[in-house]
Amino acid sequence: MKTRAPYELAVIGADAAGLAAAACAARAGARVALVGAPAPARPKGATSPSVPDFVWRRLDLQDSGLQLQPVEAYVSLFEDGKSLATYASSSKTRAALEREGVGDFRLWTDFQLALTALWKEGGEMARRASINGARANAHPLLTALSAPSGERLAQKLAATTAGLLDDFFTSEELKVHLANIALSPFGLGGDETGSALAVASLSDAAGWRSRARRRAPSLEIALEDVAKAAGVEFFSQKILDIRADEKLAKLSLDSGEALKARRVMASSEAAAAAAGLKIAHGLAPLARREGAQADIRLKFSKAPPPPAAGKHAVFFLADSIASISEARDAVLEGRLPERPPISFEFVKDEIIVRAPYCPAVLRTEGESREWTEQDRQALGRQIVARLAPYLNGAVRNIRRIEVSVSPAGAPKGDAGAVAAPPPGHDVVGAAARLALDLVSGD
Amino acid sequence: MATKTEETRKTGGRIEGGFDAIVIGASTDGLAAAAMLGKAGFKTVLLGAGGAALDEGRREFAPGFFALDGDLVMGALDPQLVEALDLYRHGLELASRRLETVYFFDDGGALLMEGDLYRTRESVAAMSPRDADAYADFVETALDAARALRPLFETGPAPALAEALSSESERFLSASSEDIVDSLFEDAHLRALLEAEAALRSAARPSEAFSFAALLRRWAGEAAGLQAASAYPAGGAPGLRRALRRAAQAANVDFRPSVGVARVLVEWDGAAGVQTDDGGQIRAPIVVNALSARQAFLDLVGPEHINIEFQAALAAPAPRIASARVNFALTGAPGDERTRANLSRRLFFAPSREGLRGAYAAARRGDVASPLVMEALIPSVFDPALAPKNGLVVSAWAHPVPFKAEKDDALAERIGEAARETLEKIAPGAAARIAAVDVRLPADEAAASGAPAEVFAARSSVLDQWARARRFAGASGIEGYYFCGPEAEIGRESGGGAGRRAAAAAMQHAKMRARS
Question: Which strands sit side by side in the sheet containing B321-331, from one edge to the other?
Fold first, then answer.
């Protein structure tokens, strides 16, 4: 077995967040290993996470040919034929709400300010706690609670999405729309303690999804090039085992290789779950996304007609905030929700659907079981039925349905837990920040 | 039980002065506040029944079988209150100082735990040595953390928390029960036990952030001088209230159970007394309110005296989860030796994780799952007068069940059925001997006490309770007005601490006023 000198940082998960984290740490002068199979390529033209400015600058991404454009609009479609759109630009959203006659538009600016303030406080605390998860030193939550008006912060941290939205808005459509775009990346319910932070995290500019421009490289390809150029070493094998003491972690890979690293982090909770690792969280009301996400690709014989808002939007379906909570309950019970909240986008002759409320393990009659091909097909049919009313009869042109469910590995090793970025909408920025915090040594 | 000081006179439209303090509501905390104030020499009047119906003590729910309503197993009997009022001299008696607990599990397994959690190591030695050791270590860390967090749970200022706690403990405060359990143990019984103990009477699901702190809160409590012990006061919660009532009488508190309060008088941003519902006034510079926060601040004070932000804190979302109090009348003698030995213990059913998740999901959609989490005690073993000869009363909390503000007999029936099935898991064969089942839901408690049903729902997350309790305790902005209603207490039981703290704050205030 080959042994190498220890890396300063091992990043687990070769998704965009992991690539950016590894590249940032390497650019900062650290020796970095990136472990994990590359994420399956997403079809050209599909949306990806965005890249916050500080990562862009640290990695000089302008030199990589990467050109990202924020998705034009997030559009919720409702059963009665109504729709509601919000935009990356807050002022554009406000204007659109006013134009559509949504009375709540007057509070939009106040709402944005409240989100920014809450995310600054709560998000920063989550970030510090996340480093602590890896280092075990200070206590951001306790320090905050000890402060003279700690109860105000406590109340905000314990707030629910439904409660926060009720404080500002009366339009059910607007509330459902915001709850769905805020909660679905985490698979949380709208009445869950602490879920208001998911809405607050929408105030991250880089939390809005993007698309790479045509003829420009995709985000993952650009980041991979930058990471390689920065000296990140790639290991695409599976992790068999991870053992750690105070100073050093040792990862055994299924190729028989082993690598040592002073610090280990996962690029995201999902990446850690896929590798079968536990995550250390100091504080993360959004953490622990119980359940899995299903990605469904519907391939059409001819390009389906997008709803009125146009093919560049990302579309969302949810009946009500209560239905989001019900979907979460179903996931906790190990069954598929009856009317799951989903999002979808149009990419050439395909529709790509994200169903973030899927149980990782199914339970029927008191027994747990893994996903089978039948289950995946049933989910595919359910999703098609859910979309049909919005597609003007185009469902008959579907020629293939591909369903993949994010894997959850069995927990392994006795390393305790690895660090992971605090959950939020800006996944790339959070991972990059954690990597920089971990290698900066303070 | 009218006594010399417990007169039924009304003010009859008159203005009455000469009091130092008025306490509204004769709940455990109201009685505690009145007794503390009276003992300190404040001329105190206690208004309103506020649960006097519950003080009757026992309630016959089947011929010859009596139930005691309110908390039976107490783990947070405020030790400072007991000492300051000398409650043992006033009739408080602990029928059991530290109940042992027998945990029962889905797979038929059972585990006996010492009443003293510091002796956990011996209790679990019979299990896998690895998990037993890990569990004992965990319990010690958690007990230390709970003790360090006590100031927080008592809603006081909590400076220097960060120094008092290890890094492991911070996770205990913010993480979900499932996360904590997953990171610590493999043994299915220990996992189920901890998740169920943290979930009992809590609305926070075990997968939710901050849910584990509910267990720390419980373990921070003290009964009979032992941290995290479960005690059984003779006569249950009514027994505790009787002792408080006697202490208050001894301290010359003027009881006026028939006087209803229409408004709290606010003059120059300070409390000036109350207006009674017959049009009279009783004036005093200190008013302590033991009713619910909504009654205390919105109904009796009125929104015009309260700032907007504080009003927002009053608006809690409608509860969805409750716990049911279920009393069983059992006939015949218990079958085997083991069951007989268990009669004087705290019996606890801990479902599997899947079972518990399913129970919460069911309760949230208005259904009742089976089995439920159950904490049971057999009060008739300690007080044989509660059951006929050859009979037993089993009193249990069954959790989680749907919250309904209105009385709902069909729901009560379904809960009774689920509770019966759960009891069968604790004592196989018991179901066949059940002569009657009495299900008591928040709507019943509300009818008996006059408080809104919401205050009898399951408690929200500890962080949320703490935030609200802190704000209600301090920030109404009305000088001389103190709050010790149900929202002032963090955790699942009322041990009188909130009343004691409200009285202490009022005395401090009076001292400052006298000085200036």
Answer: B110-113, B101-105, B346-350, B373-377, B391-402, B321-331, B434-440
A145 contacts in chain B (CB < 8 Å): 152, 158, 161, 466
Distance CA B438, CA B442 (A): 13
A193·B209 Cβ contact <8 A: yes
pLDDT tens for B19-65 read 999 999 998 999 999 999 999 999 999 998 655 444 567 889 999 99
**Reduced 3-state DSSP string for B197-266:** HHHCCECCCCCCCCCCHHHHHHHHCEECCEECCCEEECCHHHHHHHHHHHHHHHCCCEEECCCCEEEEEE
A191: nearest CA partner in chain B: B317
Burial class of residue A217 in the structure, from the number of CB atoms within 10 Å of its CB (0-12 exposed, 13-18 middle, 19+ buried):
middle
- Please state the pTM of the whole predicted model: 0.90
The domain over range B4-56+237-315+460-515 is classified in CATH as 3.40.50.620 = no
Q: What is the number of other CB atoms lying within 10 angstroms of the CB of residue A26?
A: 27
How many pairs of residues across A and B have Cβ atoms under 8 Å apart? 127
Domain ranges within chain B, ordered by starting residue: 4-56+237-315+460-515, 122-220, 320-449
Spatial distance between the Cα atoms of B21 and B163, rounded to a whole number of angstroms: 39
Is the CB of residue B1 less than 8 Å from the CB of residue B468?
no
Specify the DSSP element, H or E, that contains B353: helix B353-364
Give residue A356's Cα distance to chain centre.
10
Which of A146, A325, A418 should one mutate to test binding to chain B, selecting the residue with the greatest count of B CBs within 10 A?
A146
Radius of gyration (C-alpha) of chain B in whole angstroms: 23
Is A325 in the B-facing interface, judged by CB distances under 8 Å?
A: yes
Is A192 close to B468, i.e. CB distance below 8 A?
A: no
pLDDT tens per residue across span B62-75: 999 999 988 889 88
Complex ipTM more than 0.90, yes or no:
no
